[in-house]
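--- STAGE predict ---
source: upstream dedup step, 1 unique chain passed
mode: sequence only
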Amino acid sequence: MQRILPFLVFLAIALILIGGMHYYVWARVVRDTHLPEAAARVVTLAIVALGVSLPLAMIASRLFAKAVVRPAMWVAFVWMGMGFLFVAFFGIADLGRLAAALVRRISGTPLDPAKRVFLARTVAAGVGGVVAGLSAVGIRSALGEVQVKELDIFLRGLPAELAGFKLVQISDVHVGPLLRKDWVAQVVDRIAHCGRRAACTSPPATTSTTRASRNGTRTCPRSASGRCATSASSSLPGSIWRESKTRPARPICPAPWPAAIRRARWSCSRTSRGSSWKRRATACR
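--- STAGE serialize ---
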């Protein structure tokens, strides 16, 4: 009972938010635009079906095989992103409509009903076009090649044996029902072409490659295809790290490391508006 009650509360809040979001989209797309009866019925059924698909897809993913529910998961996740974009842009448009309504009320000039419908249809069409374009760009970015951002880091007291050490930091991969083994294989291949000596996973939003230098910084050069062209000075066995904000990084796949790396410690600090943030990753022992 103690576990069921929080779940029911969460489910109720989620359903209220989903229902409110879809009613808001329906009001702006169907009600305010005064669509013909047949078109209004079709759009209404589509919005209801898409809204129901969100919780049903989540439940089905736990009851059935992933391969069976994957098409439904694609529809649910894509629509979830599009729905939030619809709410955001319609909200921005409503702020403009509210300001215009206040101006008309002060000036005492009412808005013609025909003009009101025309503006509602124009806003709905414009928001729909923007959401469709952003969604297409987002899907292409999510399914495309990972972004590689090169960073040069200077570490004081770095042992001479670690000069030129290169670390590939992987983040924001989101492997799950949609991104499967074939996509992960592309990420692994991209990492392999960066000539890394170690790889780790962490919360930041982009994949980056860094090379540490004792007396300065070095940058991993790229080939014509955009991949890192320089290999590490020696091929060392690596580990995949899982980082936490409260404890040092824990290796998922331990591997033998040279003594210099076992003794090494990496720490970095950043100060912003008087508050400091520090993260320390400890190499495999």
